[in-house]
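Standup notes, structure subgroup. Blocker cleared on the nickel (II) ion input:
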Amino acid sequence: MSLLPIIEIPDPVLRAQSAPVERVDDELRRLIADMFDTMYAAPGIGLAAVQLAIPRRLFIIDLQDPEEEGGEPVKKPLVFINPEILTSSDETNVYNEGCLSIPDQYAEVERPASVRARWLDADGKQQEGEVDGLLATCFQHETDHLNGILFIDHISRLRRDMVLKKLTKLRKENKNLVA
Ligand code: NI
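Run returned:
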């Protein structure tokens, strides 16, 4: 198990355009395994390679089914390589979004409620399908990462300034605890 460091704002790599993945091979699958270890440990429900300072068009999602009484959450790992959004619904959804690269900050973001998308799976096979609900929001949030876009870019300037101010304050407090 390998945990990789997650980069945070204002790291400029988060603003990079990720490059397409050229080959789905064992090396890439090792990176994907490390990405899952890192995401589960964080914990988070989505992680793009660029958040590990690897600007390649690849992200993973695991929404994890709600745990049954007394049981562990059921893992449902999903891998999306070179994803493309083909069409988006006019209908929208609002979710309270967070991001491992903007720790402990959340804001309501409005996005298309469903998207039709195409991607390669971990075997390099092309997949196409409609995603909706929380998965659609997560898919769009992660696709944004591949284009250097963060969820705070979708909210008002006032809300964004509040989020950034709270994050600065939180980081200061954390520093004081360590000192
Ligand atoms: Ni994110």
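Discussed briefly. The longest strand covers residues 78-88.
Next: hand off to the docking folks.
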